From TrEMBL:
Name by which UniProt lists this protein: Ribosome biogenesis GTPase YqeH
Organism phylogeny: Bacteria, Bacillati, Bacillota, Bacilli, Lactobacillales
Stored PANTHER family: GENETIC INTERACTOR OF PROHIBITINS 3, MITOCHONDRIAL
Record domain CP-type G: where: 61-225
A Pfam family: YqeH-like_C
A GO molecular function held by the record: GTP binding
InterPro entries named in the record: G_CP_dom, GTP-bd, GTP-bd_ribosome_bgen_YqeH, Mito_lipid_metab_GTPase, NOA1/YqeH-like_C, P-loop_NTPase
Length: 362
């Protein structure tokens, strides 16, 4: 008899061992013809019943320090679509000498034409700007079976018999990836760990046995305050978790023109030559072009209607950039606009969400 969650042989003797199920529970399940889960996997399955909590910044840093005390492989999952918003710049400082495998997830959202080699080089350069030097960077989509297998191989390769801690801020797809790993390893059809569009629902540290002595440990994410998701109504979270490949939209813009991204963000082309600016956002997010003059009044009048979706409890604040070379102006988590050459632009995002300028990805 095997646990259908983790594949371990079901046993009733060793409470701390793999596949443990109390004898009474085993008897009952066999009588009812229920599927057999070991106690550990049973708890994972009933994750949903625990009231959602999230880690505070302090707790998260303490968690990283705790991991630093173990000789382990750290798998840091980040979201390529919200790359700047999902990096943990204190990772190396707090986790000491442990190797880090960076997993850049949600590859399926980016245009297919973007080559993995180029993407990885760009990711490495960007990570280095934040002081991050991962041992390796793996580009994945949790929705792609081959990617999940490749990830499992990479983990096996880099862990060298050690425990594996999976860390990441909320919403990067960590639970989805871990579920896919479990499914892959065990052949189970059910989702074992809760995944959700709601940031901050991964709750406790959970261990998934890798072999007799070591485990893959899923850790709670931190709610990153700079994430756009916190200023959206639940039904609008789809805009920050695109499900399909993004179709870039290029606008030939004259100076003094403005683009609105629903009611969630705004981009002003202030001065420079007329040029094509490319917007990378969820395909369903309505982009509206208007004149810079009067744009603020226009926003106040039309937010939530023509400019939908609306923000929840937040207002847009402005940051100006002088673009010298091909750059992305990033609305953390929502998307970005590629500005090809010299221009002065302004970006508006909800107060508290970061806006950054970076070397163009594409
Ligand atoms: P966690 O908070 O890091 O555990 O994130 P979840 O696993 O709950 O995922 C957050 C959202 O991203 C969910 O809506 C997932 O369906 C979605 N997601 C996860 N992985 C991928 C991926 O590789 N591609 C895409 N397009 N969406 C993903």
């Amino acid at each position: 008899m095997h646990c259908i969650g983790c594949g371990a042989v079901i046993q009733t003797e060793d409470k701390d061992g793999l596949g443990y199920l109390p004898a009474g529970a085993l008897k009952k399940k066999l009588e009812n013809g229920d599927e057999l889960y070991c106690q550990r996997c049973f708890r994972l399955r009933h994750y949903n019943e625990i009231a959602p909590t999230s880690l505070t910044d302090e707790d998260f840093l303490a968690l990283l320090r705790e991991i630093g005390q173990h000789d382990a492989l750290i798998v840091n999952v980040v979201d390529i679509f919200d790359f700047n918003g999902s990096l943990i710049s204190s990772l190396h400082r707090l986790t000491g000498n442990n190797d880090v495998l960076m997993v850049a997830n949600k590859r399926d959202v980016l245009p297919k034409s973007l080559k993995v080699g180029k993407l990885t080089a760009w990711l490495r350069e960007q990570a280095a700007n934040y002081g991050l030097k991962p041992k390796d960077i793996l580009v994945t989509s949790a929705k792609n079976q081959d990617d999940v297998e490749q990830l499992m191989e990479a983990i096996e390769h880099y862990r060298r018999g050690r425990d594996v801690y999976v860390v990441g801020v909320t919403n990067v797809g960590k639970s989805t990836l871990i579920n896919a790993i479990i499914k892959n390893a065990s052949g189970a059809d059910d989702e074992v760990i809760t995944t959700s569009r709601f940031p901050g629902t991964t709750l406790d540290k959970i261990e998934i046995p890798l072999d007799r002595d070591t485990a893959l440990i899923d850790t709670p994410g931190i709610i990153h305050r700079g994430q756009m998701a916190h200023y959206l109504a639940p039904e609008d979270l789809k805009y920050v978790s695109p499900r399909k490949e993004i179709k870039p939209k290029t606008y030939q813009l004259n100076p003094e023109q403005t683009l609105f991204f629903g009611g969630l963000g705004r981009f002003d082309f202030i001065s420079g030559e007329r040029q094509g600016m490319t917007a990378y956002f969820d395909n369903e997010l309505n982009i509206h072009r208007t004149k810079l003059e009067g744009a603020t009044e226009f926003y106040e009048k039309h937010k939530g209607e023509l400019l939908a979706p609306a923000l929840v409890n937040a207002k847009l604040v402005r940051k100006e950039f002088s673009v010298k070379e091909k750059s992305d102006i990033v609305f953390n988590g929502l998307g970005w606009v590629r500005v090809p050459e010299r221009a002065v632009v302004a970006a508006w995002v909800p107060e508290g969400v970061d806006i950054v300028m970076r070397k163009a990805l594409i």
